[in-house]
Design a protein that fits this description.
The complex is a heterodimer. By secondary structure, chain A is α/β, with parallel strands linked by helices. Helices cover about 40% and strands about 20% of the residues of chain A. Chain A has 14 helices and 17 strands. Chain B has 14 helices and 34 strands. In chain B, helix 12 runs antiparallel to helix 14. Classes of the chains: A alpha/beta, B alpha+beta.
Chain lengths: ~375, ~600
C-alpha cells in the first residue's frame, strides 16, 4: 500500500471538446476557447494545493478529456511544462486535432505516449458515433505523432456500433493493425442511460445485441493472433517479443487496475488516496472560481471501508491477465463459488494467485459478481 | 314436543336455484325472524359464503308452523362437501328438491337428489322462480317428476323471491314428510352432522338426536373417536342459540362441548351418554381424507409465521383441512395442504388471503397417490417428489363424473373426457334437449383446468358434479425436472406415461425461456428415473464484462457490480445455476393453466 502523500500516478482532466459525441457521458465542455487559459491556471493551483500528496518520482501522468489536444496550444504547453516529470506521460488525442505542430509541442514537453481516439475506420459508423474525424485523419495522426518522435501510440476502437457488421469489424481491426500501434484499446459501445445516443439508437442496439455477441471474441482472437497481449479486459499491447522486449502496457491505467493511489486534477476528476476517494464537482465555472480564491474546488467524498477496498481489488485485479494475489482478499471471496467456477473452467488458482481463464475473461463481469462474497 | 309433531328436512338445490332465498322466506313466514332482524340469506353467515352464493357450513334452524316443530337443516351446496351433505341428509326424514324453473335440472341437483334417495328421504319437489319471464315451470316440473318418479301434479310451484307458494311448501313438509322414528327410551344416540368452533366455548356440535335424550351437564362420548366431554350447554337455533335442559329423540340442536380441537369431534360420528352408552353407533361414519394437495407459500418469506397461525385458526373450524410444513428449493418455507376438492382449496386460499390478509403462492394442485414400493407396504403420497423411483404398483383416485349438457355439445364433452383418460359410463336424455353423461375419470385430470375447459367447450352450458370413486391402478410415472443435472423438487410431477414425454418437453421448453443465460451451458432435462425424456440447453453467454473501467468510474462500476451481486442473491441456486423465482412460477403456472 502506498504511504499517504506518495501517489505515483497523476491524472489531469481537460474537458474541452469541439462538439459533444452522442455516446459520451464524460465531463466535457464545448467551445469556450477563452476559458482554456484560466482553466489551466486553476489546474496548476489545484496541483499546488495537492502537491504534498504526490511522490517525488511519478510513474505516470495522464492527460484525459474531453479532448486534451483541443486545448489552445499555449495553454496546453504551459500546463505540460508545469506538470511533474514521469516515466510515462500520456495525452489523449482526437485524430482531427493532431497536427505536426501539436505533435512537436507534445514531444518537446515530455509526452512519450499518445492515445488516439480512432474508434472506427468506416465513415457511416463515425457518423453514427457523431465523431468529427474522417478515416484518413486517423492514419495521418499516427504518422504525424511517430514523426514527432513519440514511439508509444495507442489506438482506441469501438465495436458494436449500430449498423456495424462482422465484416466492418474485421476491416476496422485490419486497418488498426496496419498502423502497427504499440497499444490498442477495444471497447464495446455502451449505450449509457440518458445519453443522446441511447435515445437515438438504444432500441437498435438491443435488437442487434445477439448478432454482436461474438464481436468481443473476434476482437481478442484477431489481436492476439497479430502478436498482441490481451493484458486487460479491453486493452492489448504488442507483446514483448514483438516489441524489442518493451512492456507496453499502459502504466497509468495499470495503476488503477492494481489498486494504487492516484491524484486527479480538474473538473470531475477523481482521486483515490489512502482509502479516501473524492471527485471534483463538474462545473467549470465553480472549479475556476474556487481555485482563483485559493480554495479547493467543491468535492464529493467517499470513505472506502476495508471491505470495499477488497471488493475493488478483486473487481479491478481480475480484469488483468496476470493473476490477482489472494493474500488479504480471502474475506472478499466466496470460497464455494471459487471452487465451482474453477470446476467450470472459468477461473484458476495457482501459487497464491487467482486468475480468470480466457473463457472466464469473456464473462468476467458475471464471474466477478459470483466470486465476491 | 312429541315426536309426531316434529319434521326434519333439508333443502337441496343447484347453486343459484334459490335454496337460501327459500330458507329466508320460511324463517319470515314462520315469524322465526322478525322483518327487522331479517337480512337476506341469513343462514350463510360467513362473508365468503354470502359472496360466492354458496353455503360452506351447515346449520339447523327450528321453526314453528301450525303446531309443528320444523327443523330446517341447511346443507353445503358443493361436491367437495358431499360427505357433509350426506350426513346432513341422514339427519332428516325429507328434503325439498328445489329446481330453477328456467334452468331445469343441473348436475348438482342430480347428485344431491340421488344422495337424498339413498338416505330414504321423502323428496318434496319444488320448482322455484316461476315469476321469471323466461321460466318454463311445465318443463322443469316434468324433468323433476321424471327424476324422482313422482307425479308432475305434485310438484310445487313457487317464487321464493315473492313468497308465492311458500306456505304450501311448509304444509307439504308437514303432510308428506314422516315424523322421526327414534326410541325415546333407548340408550341415547345422536348423529353429529356438523361442527364449528367458538373461540370462547370451544367446539360446538350440531346434532340430530335419534334415540333417547341428552341433558345438560351429562358426560358424553363420541363413539368412533372415543372423545369424552361434558355437555356444557345444549339447545336449538332460531337461528340464535336457545339453551334447553334436554333434547329428545327426533329433535335437532346443538351441544357445546368445551373441546378445543374440531378434529376431536368428527362429522358423522355418534354421540352417546357415558353413563348409559348405546351398543351400536349410527351407520355411515367415514374418515374423510383430503384428495387434492397443493403447496401454499407466502409471497414474502417473512409472512411464514402469519401463514402458520392462519392455518391453525382455519383448521379449528375445518376438520377436513390438512397441512404440514413443506420446504421447497424454489419457494422457500410453506405448507403442503390437503383439501377435499378444488372448491375447498379455493375457499381456504381465499379465506387466508381475505380474512388473514396474506399474499400466497399456490402451487399447481396434485392428487393423493397410493403406492406400493418394491418389497414395501402401501403408502399414500401427497407430493410428486415423494413418489419412490421404484415401485411395484401405484394407484390414483378416480371420480364418477356427472355432466349435464345440451345435446349439441355432447361431442365436445366426450372429446374432452377422452383426452383426460375418461372411461365412458352412461348417456341418458333428460329431455329432448338435454343429455346426462356419466364418466369415470382420474381425479388428477380434473384438478388442473378441467372445469374451465368443460365450460369453454360447451359455451358455459355444461354443469358438472362428481363423486369420489376410490383408487385405481394407474400407469403412472414421476417426471423430474433437472437443472444443471440437479432435480428441482417443486417441479416434479406425476403423469400418465402416455403424456410424460409431452409434459416433460413442455416444461423444459418453458424453463429454457425463463432461465437467464449463464456463464456456462445449462442443461434442462426432464427425466423418468435415470432416463432423460426431454432436454433443452440454455446456451452460455459469450460475453459479460464492463467494457471499460478507469480511475474516474471505479465507484460507479463497483456499485453496478454490487447490484448485480444482490440480484443474484435473490435467485435460487440449483446445481450452480441461478434461477429467478419467476422461472419457477412460470412453470408452476404452466402446470396450472395451459395444460393442453
Amino acid at each position: 500500500m502506498t504511504v499517504p502523500g506518495r501517489a505515483r500516478h497523476l491524472y489531469v482532466h481537460l474537458p474541452f471538446c469541439a462538439s459533444r459525441c452522442g455516446y459520451c457521458d464524460f465531463v466535457t465542455v464545448v467551445g469556450r476557447d477563452a476559458e482554456h487559459a484560466p482553466y489551466v491556471d486553476a489546474l496548476l493551483r489545484e496541483l499546488e494545493l495537492e502537491r504534498r500528496l504526490l511522490a517525488p518520482e511519478l510513474e505516470s501522468v495522464y492527460l484525459g478529456g474531453g479532448t486534451p489536444t483541443l486545448t489552445s496550444p499555449a495553454a496546453l504547453e504551459r500546463l505540460l511544462a508545469a506538470l511533474p516529470r514521469a516515466e510515462e506521460v500520456t495525452v489523449e488525442a482526437n485524430p482531427e486535432t493532431v497536427t505536426p505542430a501539436l505533435a512537436r509541442l507534445l514531444s518537446r514537453n515530455g509526452v512519450n505516449r499518445v492515445s488516439i481516439g480512432a474508434q472506427t475506420f468506416h465513415m457511416h459508423l463515425l457518423d453514427a458515433l457523431e465523431r468529427r474525424a474522417r478515416p484518413d485523419d486517423v492514419r495521418r495522426a499516427v504518422h504525424v505523432v511517430r514523426d514527432a518522435g513519440i514511439d508509444n501510440i495507442s489506438l482506441d476502437l469501438i465495436y458494436g456500433i449500430p449498423g456495424q457488421g462482422p465484416a466492418d469489424l474485421a476491416r476496422d481491426l485490419a486497418e488498426a493493425l496496419a498502423l502497427e500501434p504499440e497499444h490498442l484499446s477495444a471497447y464495446e459501445l455502451e449505450a449509457k442511460p440518458g445519453t443522446r445516443f441511447t435515445h437515438a439508437h438504444g432500441g437498435e442496439l438491443e435488437r442487434q445485441a445477439e448478432s454482436m455477441e461474438s464481436y468481443f471474441e473476434h476482437v481478442v482472437e484477431t489481436l492476439t493472433a497479430a502478436g498482441y497481449r490481451w493484458y486487460e479486459t479491453a486493452n492489448f499491447c504488442r507483446a514483448p517479443e514483438h516489441a524489442h522486449g518493451r512492456d507496453l502496457r499502459a502504466r497509468h491505467n495499470l495503476g488503477y487496475w492494481l489498486g494504487r493511489d492516484y491524484l486527479g486534477l480538474g473538473v470531475g476528476a477523481v482521486s483515490t488516496i489512502d482509502g479516501r476517494r473524492w471527485r471534483n464537482a463538474p462545473s467549470l465555472r465553480g472549479y475556476a472560481a474556487s481555485l482563483a480564491g485559493g480554495e479547493r474546488p467543491a468535492r464529493a467524498h467517499e470513505e472506502l471501508s476495508p471491505q470495499v477496498r477488497r471488493t475493488e481489488r478483486v473487481m479491478l485485479g481480475l480484469r488483468l491477465d496476470e493473476g490477482l494475489p489472494l493474500a488479504g482478499l480471502e474475506q472478499a471471496l466466496d470460497a464455494v463459488e471459487l471452487e465451482r467456477l474453477a470446476g467450470a473452467g472459468l477461473a484458476v488458482r495457482r501459487d497464491g494467485l487467482l486468475a480468470l481463464t480466457p473463457r472466464g475473461r469473456f464473462v468476467g463481469g458475471a464471474v466477478t459478481a459470483r466470486l465476491l462474497a | 314436543m312429541d315426536q309426531d309433531h316434529i319434521r326434519n328436512f333439508s333443502i337441496i338445490a343447484h347453486i343459484d336455484h334459490g335454496k337460501s332465498t327459500l330458507a329466508d322466506r320460511i324463517l319470515q313466514l314462520t315469524d322465526t325472524v322478525s322483518a327487522r332482524e331479517m337480512r337476506d340469506q341469513l343462514l350463510d353467515s360467513m362473508e365468503l359464503e354470502r359472496e360466492r352464493g354458496i353455503t360452506i357450513k351447515a346449520q339447523a334452524v327450528r321453526v314453528q308452523w301450525k303446531g309443528y316443530e320444523l327443523n330446517l337443516i341447511d346443507t353445503p351446496g358443493h361436491v367437495d362437501f358431499t360427505y357433509e351433505v350426506s350426513r346432513s341428509l341422514q339427519a332428516c326424514e325429507g328434503a325439498l328438491l328445489v329446481v330453477d324453473a328456467a334452468q331445469g335440472i343441473e348436475a348438482q341437483t342430480l347428485a344431491n337428489a340421488y344422495l337424498a334417495i339413498e338416505n330414504d328421504l321423502e323428496i318434496v319437489p319444488v320448482v322455484n322462480k316461476i315469476d321469471l319471464p323466461q321460466a318454463d315451470p311445465d318443463a322443469a316440473s316434468a324433468e323433476v317428476a321424471d327424476l324422482i318418479g313422482e307425479d308432475a301434479g305434485r310438484v310445487l310451484r313457487i317464487s321464493a323471491k315473492t313468497g308465492a307458494g311458500v306456505e304450501a311448501v311448509l304444509d307439504a313438509v308437514v303432510e308428506r314428510i314422516q315424523a322421526p322414528a327414534g326410541d325415546r327410551d333407548a340408550a341415547p344416540r345422536a348423529l353429529i352432522f356438523d361442527s364449528s368452533y367458538d373461540q370462547y366455548r370451544g367446539v360446538v356440535a350440531f346434532v340430530r338426536v335419534v334415540d333417547g335424550a341428552f341433558r345438560r351437564r351429562e358426560i358424553l362420548r363420541a363413539m368412533a373417536l372415543g372423545t369424552r366431554f361434558e355437555a356444557q350447554e345444549i339447545g336449538f337455533m332460531t337461528p340464535a342459540m336457545r339453551p334447553v335442559s334436554e333434547l329428545g329423540a327426533g329433535e335437532v340442536g346443538y351441544v357445546i362441548t368445551g373441546l378445543k380441537d374440531v378434529s376431536e369431534l368428527r362429522v358423522g360420528d355418534t354421540l352417546t351418554s357415558e353413563k348409559r352408552p348405546a351398543a351400536e353407533p349410527l351407520h355411515g361414519y367415514k374418515d374423510v381424507k383430503p384428495m387434492v394437495f397443493a403447496g401454499l407459500f407466502p409471497t414474502e418469506s417473512d409472512d411464514y409465521p402469519e401463514l402458520r397461525d392462519a392455518l391453525e385458526k382455519l383448521k379449528l373450524n375445518d376438520a377436513a383441512l390438512f397441512y404440514e410444513p413443506e420446504t421447497s428449493q424454489a419457494l422457500g418455507f410453506g405448507f403442503r395442504c390437503g383439501f377435499l376438492g378444488l372448491l375447498h382449496m379455493e375457499i381456504v386460499r381465499e379465506r387466508l388471503e381475505r380474512e388473514f390478509d396474506l399474499d400466497l403462492l399456490v402451487t399447481a394442485p396434485n392428487v393423493a397417490y397410493r403406492v406400493k414400493p418394491v418389497n414395501g407396504e402401501w403408502v399414500e403420497v401427497h407430493t410428486p417428489a415423494d413418489l419412490p423411483d421404484a415401485f411395484d404398483e401405484v394407484e390414483e383416485p378416480y371420480i364418477k363424473a356427472s355432466i349435464i349438457v345440451p345435446k349439441e355439445h355432447v361431442g365436445a364433452v366426450m372429446e374432452l373426457n377422452n383426452d383426460r383418460r375418461g372411461r365412458f359410463d352412461h348417456l341418458e336424455y333428460l329431455s329432448e334437449q338435454r343429455v346426462h353423461l356419466t364418466y369415470e375419470l382420474p381425479l388428477a385430470e380434473i384438478v388442473l383446468d378441467y372445469y374451465d375447459q368443460l365450460k369453454s367447450r360447451t359455451r358455459g352450458y355444461a354443469s358438472f358434479d362428481y363423486d369420489m370413486a376410490g383408487f385405481r391402478p394407474g400407469n403412472l410415472a414421476r417426471v423430474d425436472i433437472l437443472v444443471g443435472g440437479e432435480p428441482v423438487d417443486a417441479l416434479s410431477l406425476i403423469v400418465h406415461r402416455d403424456f410424460a414425454y409431452e409434459r416433460g418437453k413442455m416444461l423444459v421448453e418453458k424453463l429454457r425461456e425463463e432461465i437467464p443465460r449463464q456463464m456456462f451451458d445449462v442443461a434442462i432435462q426432464a427425466a423418468i428415473g435415470a432416463r432423460i425424456i426431454a432436454r433443452e440447453t440454455v446456451k452460455a453467454r459469450r460475453k459479460d464484462v464492463l467494457a471499460k473501467c478507469y480511475g474516474g468510474d471505479i465507484s460507479r462500476k463497483r456499485k453496478l457490480l454490487e447490484k448485480q451481486k444482490a440480484g443474484k442473491k435473490r435467485m435460487k441456486s440449483v446445481g450452480g445455476v441461478e434461477v429467478p423465482q419467476e422461472a419457477f412460477l412460470a412453470v408452476l403456472n404452466l402446470n396450472d393453466g395451459s395444460k393442453r
